[in-house]
Amino acid sequence: MIVPDNNCNKCDLCRWRTNIVLPCGDLRSKVVLVGEAPGESEDFRGIPFVGKSGQILDNAMAAAGLKRSDVMITNTVKCRPPKNRDPTDEEMSVCRQFLNSELKHCSMVVGLGKLAIMDLIGYEGSIWKIVNKKMKVVVEGEEKIFLPTYHPMSCVYRKESEVKLIEAMTIVKEFMER
Ligand code: URA
Fold first, then answer.
1. Does the C-beta of 162 come closer than 6 Å to ligand 1?
2. Is the CB of 43 within 6 Å of ligand 1?
């Protein structure tokens, strides 16, 4: 796996970060969950999904019988955008080499939310049209299953998103048991 070095300055996000947020969980898992960008808690601790969104994700995983340590968890960009704004296309594209290297070993990629889905398959439409529908994604010449689903934070406002996120984690669980 290629990781950014401690003083990576490939994009402007380096100006605001406290820590680079590298993948966590089972780094050799056949399933990788990809979020959007680190938030405040993640920037502080250097670990993906450890704040409010992390709690929601952990609960959805638990409801499906999964633990964080069963999968790899990462983000499109490894540094927190200021004021939690969306990462730009340019920031995602310069960080993509790291994400690609994280995805090398896996056979299923789960895109959590709009920006992860956009980065991975270039889809910019409404998520409800494709949520939890298995597709194909080719990463550096290797074909993988791609599962687009809602970002954990969208579950705060919409019960339907929570139901779909748990359903996605159930699909992951079944895939892991195969
Ligand atoms: N939201 C994300 O998309 N990723 C994190 O790591 C935390 C919050």
1. no
2. no
Q: Is the pTM of this model over 0.90?
A: yes
Q: Which atom of ligand 1 is nearest to the CA of 36?
A: 3
Are residues 74 and 27 in contact, defined by beta-carbon separation less than 8 angstroms?
no
119 CB near ligand 1 (under 6 Å): no
Residues 6+ away with beta carbon under 8 Å from 42: 21, 48, 49, 50, 51, 54, 75, 80
Q: What percent of the chain has pLDDT over 70?
A: 100
| Strand, coil or helix: 137 | strand
pLDDT of residue 58: 98
Query: Which residues 6+ apart lie within 8 Å of 27 measured at CB?
Result: 1, 72, 102
